[in-house]
Specification:
Length: 118
């Protein structure tokens, strides 16, 4: 019984994320199958995507983005590149450590926002 309890506890310590939007899932003390989605709308969007992929004959691992989602992704990638260039420029110009630290924090914030594709 102790091994089962340790295995369940170890599984709970891992950070799990929604299979649709990427948000962190709340820690669950439930026994049974772990959650894959943070809420019903995410579950519904995932179902709709799977159904569309099957109807369209696309490969199972295909990623389908609307033109708006693609434009948003491109904007966020541009922001990430600009943040990285700001750090490189500041370092080349001999910026103070505190300034580099602030720019690095901005880069991390931008990258975290980019992790969520939807």
């Amino acid at each position: 019984m102790e091994l089962v309890t340790e295995a369940v506890a170890g599984r709970r310590e891992e950070a799990r994320h929604c299979a649709w939007c990427g948000r962190r899932l709340p820690d669950s003390s439930r026994i049974g199958r772990p959650r894959r989605y943070c809420a019903q709308p995410c579950r519904q969007r995932a179902y709709e995507r799977r159904a569309a992929v099957q109807r369209g004959g696309l490969p199972e691992d295909a990623v389908v983005l609307s033109s708006g989602e693609l434009a948003d992704l491109q904007d966020r990638l541009f922001q990430l590149r600009c943040a990285a260039e700001d750090i490189a420029t500041a370092a080349a110009d001999g910026a103070a450590r505190t300034e580099l630290h602030r720019l690095a924090d901005e880069l991390v914030h931008t990258a975290r926002g980019l992790e969520r594709l939807r």
